[in-house]
Amino acid sequence: MNLTRQCSLSSRFACCAWTWLAIFFLLPSVAMCQVSKAPAERFKIGMFITSIYSVDTAEGTYAADLWIWSVGRSSTKNPLQTMEFVDSNGVTRRLESNTKRGDLSWRQVKIIGTFRQDWDLRRFPFDEQVLHLTIEEGVDDNSALLYVADTSNTGYLPTASPQGWRITSQKIEVGTSHYGTGFGDPAGGTGSDYTNMQMTITLQRASIATFLNLAAPLYAAFLLCTVSFLLHKDGRPLVESRMTLLAGALFAVVLNFRAVSNVLGNEHHLTIVDRLNIVVLIDIVFATIVTITAAITTNKGKAFSLHLEYICGAIVAVSFVAFNLFLIVGAV
């Protein structure tokens, strides 16, 4: 009887011992699993533009002043310190603050920076530009930190538009940047993902003054070119006078090409003004050919020469006006 009782006690003791051993070894593993599966910390991020200025299409840059803020529960992580501006040439941080709102940390900072931009100038000076302000987390990947867009508070001041432009729309979106490398992390894989956020601002050139300043010499050159078809005396073309007018028109076109390059830089696509320059240049060459032809064909009859010149002059005038309307209406 005592032997049976002793065996029973031994069995219970063994069971208890194995149970405690299992708990001792398994609990750390469970805890580690729970830590590794902890969800990423989320921070609500927003931007507010106070000023856009120094638009430089020749250098491919613009400058902006803006506020950025974050709201999250973590008191140790500060995404405003670990984020980077993807397309910036350099930024300055000012007036950084951290305020507790219950169990939330509200952080904000003012950013003053210069940003790179690929300007599409094919419709200049009736162009519309889309600016992209992109921020990206630079330390923690998606498994540890995620952005959430604060769409309700993101925006811009009504006076934030650069001179000669107006802001027509803005939106903010959250995304992911994928890199095909673990950046040497021994615990990482072959790739890594980082949260990012992009604010898109649409700018529209608001003033037609730039177009008039650049197009005025063109229209003057075209007028000289057209008038040259009307210079006659006794039914004969005034070749010297007409060549003088055409030389003046050519000089105006060359100067206008240079003026556009000074405004936009030498490396740019053909703009509306460039196309008009080319058309006027073609008209000048055509008028020169007609002048020489008229001087030669006058011997065949004054009436024929005048008739030829008037027809050519009408063709030049009508085609130039039609091409102007096509370009401007299509751009606007």
Distance between the termini: 106 Å
Look at the helices and sheets and give the structural class: alpha+beta
Q: How many distinct folded domains?
A: 2
C-alpha-based Rg, rounded:
36 Å
Tell me the strand percentage band: 25-35%
Q: Tell me, briefly, the overall form.
A: elongated
| Annotated CATH topology of the largest domain | Acetylcholine Binding Protein, Chain: A
Which regions contain 5 or more consecutive residues with pLDDT less than 50? 1-7, 24-35
Q: What's the story with the biggest beta sheet?
A: 6 strands, mixed
CATH class group of the largest domain: Mainly Beta
CATH architecture of the largest domain: Distorted Sandwich
* The CATH H-level homologous superfamily of the largest domain: Neurotransmitter-gated ion-channel ligand-binding domain
The number of distinct helices, counting runs of at least 4 residues, comes to: 6
Mean pLDDT across all residues, rounded?
A: 81
Series of H and E elements: HEEHEEEEEEEEHEEHHH
Number of strands: 12
GO molecular function: extracellular ligand-gated monoatomic ion channel activity
Transmembrane segments: 208-231, 243-264, 276-296, 308-329
Protein name: Neurotransmitter-gated ion-channel ligand-binding domain-containing protein
Organism: Paraburkholderia humisilvae
Kindly describe this structure:
There is one protein chain. The chain folds into 2 domains: 41-205, Neurotransmitter-gated ion-channel ligand-binding domain (Acetylcholine Binding Protein, Chain: A, Distorted Sandwich), CATH 2.70.170.10; 209-331, Neurotransmitter-gated ion-channel transmembrane domain (Methane Monooxygenase Hydroxylase, Chain G, domain 1, Up-down Bundle). Helix content is 42%, strand content 33%. By secondary structure, the protein is an alpha+beta fold. Strand 1 (41-56) and strand 2 form a beta hairpin. It starts with a helix and ends with a helix. Helix 3 runs parallel beside helix 5.
